[in-house]
Specification:
This protein is of the alpha/beta class and about 575 residues long. The protein is about 45% helix and about 15% strand. The strands form six sheets. Strands 1, 2, 3, 4, 5 and 6 form a six-stranded mixed sheet that branches. A three-stranded mixed sheet has the order 13-17-18. Strand 17 (about 545-550) and strand 18 (about 555-560) form a beta hairpin. The longest helix is centred in the last third of the chain and has 50 residues, at about 480-530. The protein is extended and about 105 Å long.
Length: about 575
C-alpha cells in the first residue's frame, strides 16, 4: 500500500485517561458515503443507490458501537446511470472537492466495483491520492479499510478486485454496444428520456414510444402553427403566452403548464426547431448518430449519415407525412430567405485569400490566420480590412511564440512590391528573353527524350524478334535446351533493363513538362508585375515559395525562382 501522509484533514484526536492507564488517542472521522448506479440497464445486476447507502450506514453504526474511533456521516454522494469506466462523474467530483477542502476525510462505498471499474485509476485513488490527502477509504462488502490494522496484507486482494472490475467493465462495454446495435436494428428506442410528446414503455426487452396524452396535442399544434405562420418566433410567442413549460422543465416536474406563482422558463427557438426537424414525430426512429468514449461520457463523436440506423413505422406518428413534408418545405423557404437577407458586410464581399498557402509565422512556423472585417465610415461607405496573425503569438499557453505577431494585408503588399522591384529587377528586364529561351529549352529537351525513348523501344522490338528466331532453332533441334535457357535468362535481364530505362525517360519527360509549366508561369507572372498588375493568388504562389512574418512586421520571402535559378535553367 502507498505511503500514508502525516497530514490530518478535519480529524479530531481526543486524549482519554483512566486512573494510571496510558493516554489513548480517539479519532473522529467525517465520512462521505459514495454510491453509484451503473449505466448498464440490466437492473437485476444493479443494487439501488438507497441499498448501497444503507449498507454503508450500517457499517458506520456497527463501527461506532465497537470501536473508540468514531465516524460521522457528513453527506451521501450518488451518481445515477454512470459508468464505472471513468471517474468523470458529477457526484464523485463533488466528493473529491469536499475532500480537498478538508470537509471529508473518510470515503465509504459498498464495494470496490461501485467506486470504479478502471483498474489503474481506482488503484491510483486508493493507494496514492487518498493516503496523501489523509483520507480513510472503506469498501464494506470487500472488507477493505485503509484505517484498520493489518490492511497492508490486503493490498494484493484490492489490486486483484480492481483488475477484475476493469476487465468486467471492458467486457460489458463490448456486450452493451453489441446489444444496442441489435436493438436499434429491431426498432427498439435506445435513447435517454423520450422526446417531447412521447413516453416510453417496455415490452420484454424492447422499448417503444407511445404518444404522451399530455403533450402529443401540443406537438401537433406546433407543426400546424408553423405551417400557418411560417415563423419560428410566432410559434414560440404563442407557447410562451400560454405559459406552456418547455421540454426540459416538463421532463423535470411533469407539469404541462407553469403556475402563475412560479417563475416561468419559456420556450426558445432552438427547442421548437428541434421538434420540427425530428423525424420521430412522423413515426421514424433515427438512432446511432453519435457515440461516446469510455474516457469521457460527455465527449460525443458524431457519425456519418451512412452509419445512422433508420427504421420507419416503429411507433405511432404524431403528424402525418403530408404535414411533415409541408414543414420541411417551409423550413427550406425560411433558410433561403435568411441567406438572401442583407448582412452588415453586404456589398463588400470577402476577397480571395491570396497568401493562403505561403504565409507563415517566422517564430513558431505556424500558418498565419486571416482576420477580415468591414470598416464603416461616417459617410456611410464601407471597406473590407484584411490582416494576418499567428494564433500562437502572445498566447501564454504556448511558449514557442511569446510575442504577438500581426501584419495587415496592405502592409504586406507594400513590402512585397518593394521586394519585387529590387530582388527581381534583372528578371523583370529580361523576362522576354527568359520566355523565349524557356520555350526553346523545353522543346529541345522533350525532343531529345523522345529520341531516346524511340531508341529504347526499338531495342525491345529487336529482342522480341530475336527471341522468336531462337525459339525456332530450339524447336528444330539446332539449339540445345541448355543454350536456349541461358539465352532466355540473358534476354530477360536485358529486357528488364530496357523497361527500367523506358520508365525513367517517361518520368523525365513528365518532369520537364511540369517544371517547364512552372517556369513559364513564373515568366508570365513577371510580365504581369512589369505591367503593374494587382497581386493575385496565382501570381503570389507562382513567384513565392514561402513568406515568414516576424514581430514588428519584419518579413522574409523565399522566391520560387531567383535570377540565378532562371539563368541556370535556360543555360542547361
Amino acid at each position: 500500500m502507498g505511503r500514508t501522509s502525516k497530514r490530518i484533514h478535519g480529524k479530531t484526536e481526543l486524549q482519554i485517561s483512566s486512573g494510571h492507564q496510558r493516554l489513548e488517542k480517539v479519532r473522529c472521522y467525517k465520512a462521505g458515503i459514495y454510491a453509484r448506479l451503473s449505466s448498464d440497464q440490466d437492473e437485476k445486476k444493479n443494487e439501488s443507490v438507497e441499498t448501497q447507502v444503507e449498507i454503508a450506514k450500517k457499517f458506520v453504526a456497527d463501527w461506532n458501537q465497537n470501536h473508540p474511533d468514531k465516524i460521522e456521516v457528513i453527506e451521501c454522494y450518488t451518481d445515477l446511470g454512470k459508468t464505472g469506466s471513468n471517474f468523470n462523474r458529477d457526484a464523485f467530483m463533488r466528493l473529491m472537492q469536499d475532500v480537498r477542502l478538508g470537509e471529508i476525510n473518510c470515503v465509504i462505498v459498498k464495494d470496490l466495483s461501485r467506486f470504479g471499474r478502471n483498474y489503474l485509476e481506482a488503484g491510483n485513488y486508493i493507494e496514492k491520492i487518498f493516503p496523501f490527502l489523509g483520507v480513510r477509504f472503506v469498501a464494506v462488502v470487500d472488507g477493505y479499510d485503509t484505517g484498520a490494522d493489518g490492511n497492508d496484507t490486503k493490498q494484493m486482494a484490492s489490486e486483484i478486485k480492481n483488475l477484475v472490475n476493469d476487465m468486467y467493465a471492458k467486457d460489458i462495454s463490448i456486450k452493451a454496444r453489441t446489444s444496442l446495435a441489435q436493438r436499434r436494428q429491431e426498432g427498439s428506442y435506445v435513447g435517454g428520456p423520450p422526446p417531447y410528446g412521447y413516453v416510453s414503455v417496455w415490452e420484454g426487452k424492447m422499448r417503444h414510444l407511445i404518444p404522451d396524452e399530455n403533450t402529443a396535442g401540443i406537438v401537433r399544434h406546433i407543426y400546424h402553427k408553423f405551417i400557418e405562420t411560417e415563423s419560428y418566433a410566432a410559434v414560440v410567442n404563442e407557447l410562451n403566452h400560454r405559459r406552456l413549460n418547455p421540454p426540459a422543465v416538463y421532463k423535470k416536474n411533469g407539469e404541462v403548464y407553469c403556475p402563475p406563482d412560479v417563475v416561468y422558463k419559456g420556450w426558445e427557438k432552438s427547442a421548437v426547431e428541434r421538434i420540427l426537424k425530428s423525424e420521430t414525430y412522423r413515426g421514424t426512429l433515427v438512432q446511432g448518430k453519435t457515440s461516446i468514449t469510455a474516457k469521457d461520457e460527455k465527449n460525443r463523436i458524431r457519425k456519418g449519415e451512412n452509419e445512422w440506423v433508420v427504421k420507419e413505422h416503429t411507433h405511432e406518428a404524431l403528424v402525418d407525412e403530408e404535414t411533415y413534408k409541408q414543414v420541411v418545405q417551409v423550413r427550406q423557404r425560411l433558410q433561403e430567405r435568411v441567406e438572401s437577407h442583407s448582412h452588415p458586410t453586404f456589398g463588400v464581399p470577402i476577397e480571395e485569400n491570396i497568401f493562403d498557402k505561403v504565409l507563415f509565422c517566422g517564430v513558431c512556423g505556424r500558418k498565419m490566420t486571416r482576420n477580415s472585417y468591414v470598416k464603416k465610415y461616417m459617410d456611410g461607405s464601407k471597406k473590407r480590412m484584411d490582416g494576418y496573425f499567428c494564433l500562437n503569438g502572445g498566447a501564454s499557453r504556448v511558449e514557442c511564440c511569446p510575442s504577438s505577431n500581426r501584419i495587415s494585408k496592405r502592409e504586406l503588399a507594400d513590402i512585397l512590391s518593394v521586394l519585387f522591384k529590387t530582388e527581381l529587377a534583372a528578371s523583370l528586364k529580361r523576362q522576354k528573353i527568359y520566355l523565349e529561351k524557356g520555350k526553346l529549352f523545353i522543346q529541345q529537351n522533350k525532343k531529345k527524350l523522345q529520341q531516346k525513348l524511340l531508341s529504347v523501344r526499338r531495342m525491345k522490338e529487336r529482342l522480341d524478334s530475336e527471341e522468336s528466331s531462337k525459339y525456332e532453332e530450339y524447336r528444330m533441334g539446332n539449339l540445345s535446351q541448355k543454350d536456349y535457357v541461358a539465352y532466355k535468362m540473358q534476354k530477360e535481364g536485358k529486357k528488364q533493363e530496357l523497361d527500367k530505362q523506358e520508365q525513367q525517360l517517361l518520368q523525365r519527360e513528365k518532369d520537364i513538362v511540369r517544371n517547364g509549366e512552372v517556369y513559364l508561369r513564373a515568366i508570365r507572372a513577371l510580365n504581369k508585375l512589369k505591367k503593374g498588375t494587382v497581386l493575385t493568388k496565382e501570381l503570389i504562389e507562382t513567384l513565392i515559395e514561402k513568406i515568414y512574418v516576424y514581430p514588428a512586421k519584419r518579413v522574409e520571402v523565399l522566391f520560387t525562382y531567383a535570377d540565378i535559378r532562371m539563368e541556370k535553367m535556360v543555360e542547361e
